[in-house]
Amino acid sequence: MIEIATPGAGGEQVAMGAPPELPERLPVLPLRDTVTFPDTLTPLAVGQERSIRLINDVLGGDRMLALVASRDPEPDAPGPEQLHDVGVAGTIARMLKVPDGTLRILVQAGPRVRIEGFDTEQPYLVARVAPAPDTVTEGPELTALMRNVQETFSRIIEDVPYLPEELQLAVANLEDPSALAHLIAGALRIRTEEKQELLEERDVAKRLRRLSEILARELEVAAIGSRIQSQVQSELDRSQRDFVLRQQLKAIQDELGERDPGEAEVEELREQLAAIALPEDVRKQVDRELARLEKLPQAAAEHGVIRNYLEWMASLPWDTTTDDNLDLAHAREVLDADHYDIEKVKDRILEFLAVRRLKPDARGSILCFVGPPGVGKTSLGQSIARALGRRFERISAGGVRDEAEIRGHRRTYIGAMPGTIIRALRDAGSANPLFMIDEIDKMGADYRGDPASAMLEVLDPEQNSTFRDHYLDVPFDLSKVMFITTANTLDTVPGPLRDRMEVIALAGYTEEEKLQIARRYLVPRQIDRTGLKRSQIAFSDAGLRAIISERTREAGVRQLEREIGSACRKVARRVAEGTFDRKVTVSAPRVRELLGRPLFVPEARRRTRQPGVATGLAWTPVGGDVLFVEATAMPGKGKLTVTGQLGDVMKESAQAALSWVRGHAGLADDWFATHDVHVHVPAGAVPKDGPSAGITMATALTSLVSETAVRDDTAMTGEITLTGQVLPIGGLKEKALAAQRAGIKRVIAPRRNEPDLEDIPEHLRADLEFVWAAEIEEVLAAALDPSRDGWFARGRRTGMLAGQTHPDR
Ligand SMILES: Nc1ncnc2c1ncn2[C@@H]1O[C@H](COP(=O)(O)OP(=O)(O)OP(=O)(O)O)[C@@H](O)[C@H]1O
Ligand SMILES: [Mg+2]
């Protein structure tokens, strides 16, 4: 509701005739945000009930009232103290009722009056008033002031559209200095306070002086305004029509008080970005995009794209880093708290950190943890991050075929996003996190580009300070990021990438180590996780050993942890059901009772029961494994068939083994001419390759032709040459661990691998007997079961076999 009068439509004020006699009391109509000057005709809108009542009463009488401006620009219902002390007396010349119930009045303003006090406030204000006439000092100064004001004002009229041209004539013709001042002051759009100040100034010369100051200022503003106007004009000529329309739309929205939400958004983004210390070229790019965003209508598809982009820019840790804790003793503590043993690995990590400490800006090489699943690669990375006090983010490189997954898509693609590196940085919220890039050995490459080269750019300290994500399209400095990669094997890691990494191998754990890890880390963790108390459950060593040997066949401890967790949950359930009320000890029999029958039983005994089968040891990316080589013969023409998904190297190795056996078996020549030999390596789904099964093949073939079974407690590994030499192999530790898991007691290995024994933990050495062989004969002597008819004896007698059909097996 309009409480008080405001200037009505067409606010021009025109000087009019002489005032009537001034009464002692007048009802007061408060003015909002305007001042009425003496001797002007002023239209006003009146809406408030109390004011309407006032107008009606006044119209019933002498039509006279006082118009007084309020001090507060938005008063509710101003009382006496909120009104100025000086106003004008006036007469209502005309009144119009508007259909909405408000009134429009035209007031002929009379002389200036001073409010001496208020008689009543209800139903409307009535004040005692006294005349406040001008003081005039005629003279040349006054004339000069008048001319100055007239001249300046006429120049302003030319520049300012809101002042009608007619005023020019009116002002030029006015000879009364006081009326001149009042006319101009009323016409100008200046602050209400300034107007009131002019109204209150009774000395005409002073009033004109003040007015000429204000006019000078207004002239300047008008000049600047018209300069801007003409600039905008020329800009307009160049830019498109929709810009104009948008500006107009904006103006309308401003007028309606509907602030464009898009604009608020731009403002917010601008503020967010302003608060970040961006590199110079990034700042430029961001400013450019902000400017573009501002000009685009919200509905435009590109608007969303740019906004999204800027939101990404604002969310990245351009200037946020965490402080490194390079205290080695602390690091050691954290590593020990999280991981059992693996002393060598921890030492390497501490050395690495020590270098960082001595040379903080050293562009460190990248650690790469290589080893089978579940040996603690990821959790070591987490520990290092914890020790250093850095944020930890895991990035999976496994299965990444598309370069864009690492480096992002250009913004022109629909739904484009930054790549995994930038996304991880945002998640980390710091520019120096520890990134663990998992499964770097399982990156692929296809027509969509080579992710390995993108990864190289990420990891390479020479390049990564200006890593450019396609989406961001500006460089981001990755040189403060610490990278640790993990892989199961280095074979499939591209050479240039491998070169930049410092490899730390984790082979897998022995049964003893697993027992310790289980007791110290896995069991407590799983018990806590099920909500049991330490007083309710315990695992005996025999129970844990049973889980390890009967329910897991892994290099790491992941399945072990899962089985322990499963046992805990089963116990928890029975405790909850009330079946167990005393402390439960998970012993070996209880393992079987809780978890079921063994998943794995030693196979070697059953498999090698008949001649022709030998137990080999293989290295695979998931740790070592045992494999069985089966050889069989059938009537034929000396053909060799090899099956079981073997790679070329392994097939050739079978061929070499067969050739050696053929040359040394001492069988009559036509045995091979009349028999086909088939070598098969079961578990066909697992691709196998490499030469290290050579001696196993030779042993299986010899066992076949000599009809002598292979010892069931023995497994072997080694490459064979055509002359029967045994060549060294890799991964002895993994293979030894696999042998132990499979219940093997003896391992036949190349003599030249003997130094590797050093890598093998003490208790594993105690558990396994190693037979070192340089020649295949030594292998055969150790492998073939002496309790059976021995090969050498029988082979030398094989004259007997000549011409005979070999019995089918
Ligand atoms: N030496 C150890 N001491 C204590 N806990 C260990 C040890 N090694 C592994 N673990 C535990 O084994 C679990 C599996 O480890 P982690 O996830 O780190 O394996 P990983 O090597 O990263 O395997 P993957 O190659 O499958 O990713 C974790 O819970 C980890 O804490
Ligand atoms: Mg992992």
Describe this structure in words.
β17 and β18 form a beta hairpin. The strands form seven sheets. This protein has a five-stranded mixed beta barrel with strand order 2-4-5-6-7. Strands 9-10-13-8-14 form a five-stranded parallel beta sheet, sandwiched between helices. Mean pLDDT is 84; it is low at 1-17 and 790-809. With 809 residues, it is an alpha/beta fold. The chain has 29 helices and 25 strands. 43% of the residues lie in helices and 17% in strands. The site of adenosine-5'-triphosphate (ATP) has 20 residues, from α13, α18 and α20.
Quickly describe the structure.
The protein has 809 residues and is an alpha/beta fold. It is built from 29 helices and 25 strands.
Name the helicity range.
40-55%
Structural class by helix and strand composition: alpha/beta
> How would a crystallographer describe the biggest sheet?
5 strands, mixed, barrel
Q: Which ions and ligands are bound to the chains?
A: adenosine-5'-triphosphate, magnesium ion
Shape: elongated
**DSSP E strands, number:** 25
Distance between the termini: 109 Å
- Mean pLDDT across the residues is 84
Q: Output the number of helix runs.
A: 29
Backbone CA Rg: 49 Å
Q: How much strand content do the residues show?
A: 15-25%
Runs in which pLDDT lies below 50 for 5 or more consecutive residues are 1-17, 790-809
What topology, given as strand order, has the largest sheet? 2-4-5-6-7
Characteristics:
alpha/beta, binds adenosine-5'-triphosphate, 25 strands, disordered C terminus, binds magnesium ion, 809 residues
